[in-house]
Each structure stands twice: as structure tokens, then as C-alpha cells.
């Protein structure tokens, strides 16, 4: 397992997504709200190095955000 300790993996957690013109993005200021295509009860998408690996849920515990994996995605080759 020692060699695995040095491997880095980029983890991304996606709450939702949207598409908007760049000029809207450039006009946004502090406190702006971006509406996403997901609801508050929709699962999060969890990616490792750009590949979807799981879905999960977000919660707040002791003032910290926490992501809990609810199910792993199956990979077909």
C-alpha cells in the first residue's frame, strides 16, 4: 500500500449545472445567485479525475459540509 500513498486523485463534487452567456457571468458580483438544474433532494455527482464514480448527499455537521456516498456507479468496459 505504500506506493498508493503517493498517487493523487482529483475529486470533484457537482451540486448541479447550468448554462449561461459569458456576459451574464462577467456581470455577476458578490452575492449573485446562480440557479442550477438540480433540486435540494437530488443526488450529488462525485467524479474522480473527471470520471463519474458515485452519487451522494450533502449535509452539514458541526458547521462543516460533508458529502456521504449513497451509491457507487458501475463501470462497463
Radius of gyration: 16 Å
> What's the number of helices?
1
Please state roughly what percent of the residues sit in beta strands, choosing from under 5%, 5-15%, 15-25%, 25-35%, 35-45% or over 45%.
35-45%
Q: Which outline best applies?
A: extended
CATH superfamily: SpoA-like
Average pLDDT, to the nearest integer? 90
Pairing-aware structural class of the strands and helices?
A: mainly beta
CATH topology: Surface presentation of antigens (SPOA)
Distance between the terminal alpha carbons, to the nearest Å? 26 Å
What is the succession of H and E elements?
EHEEE
Per CATH, which architecture?
A: Roll
Secondary-structure blueprint:
Layout: E1 11-14, H1 22-27, E2 44-48, E3 51-61, E4 64-72
Detailed description of the structure:
This protein has one helix and four strands, in the order βαβββ. 1% of the residues are buried. The protein has a single domain, classed as Surface presentation of antigens (SPOA) (Roll). Helices cover 8% and strands 38% of the residues. It is extended and about 50 Å long. Strands 1-2-3-4 form a four-stranded antiparallel β-sheet, with no helix packed on it. The chain has one helix at 22-27; strands at 11-14, 44-48, 51-61, 64-72. The model has no long low-confidence stretch (mean pLDDT 90). With 77 residues, it is mainly beta. This is Flagellar motor switch protein FliN. It is a peripheral membrane protein. One of its GO terms (molecular function) is cytoskeletal motor activity. It is found in: Cell membrane. Residues 4-72 form the Flagellar motor switch protein FliN-like C-terminal domain.
Amino acid at each position: 500500500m505504500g506506493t498508493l500513498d503517493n498517487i493523487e486523485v482529483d475529486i470533484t463534487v457537482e451540486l448541479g449545472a447550468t448554462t449561461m452567456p459569458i456576459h451574464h457571468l462577467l456581470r455577476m458580483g458578490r452575492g449573485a445567485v446562480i440557479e442550477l438544474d438540480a433540486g435540494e433532494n437530488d443526488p450529488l455527482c462525485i467524479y474522480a479525475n473527471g470520471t463519474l464514480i458515485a452519487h451522494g448527499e450533502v449535509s452539514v455537521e458541526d458547521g462543516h459540509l460533508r458529502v456521504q456516498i449513497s451509491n457507487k456507479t458501475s463501470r462497463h468496459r
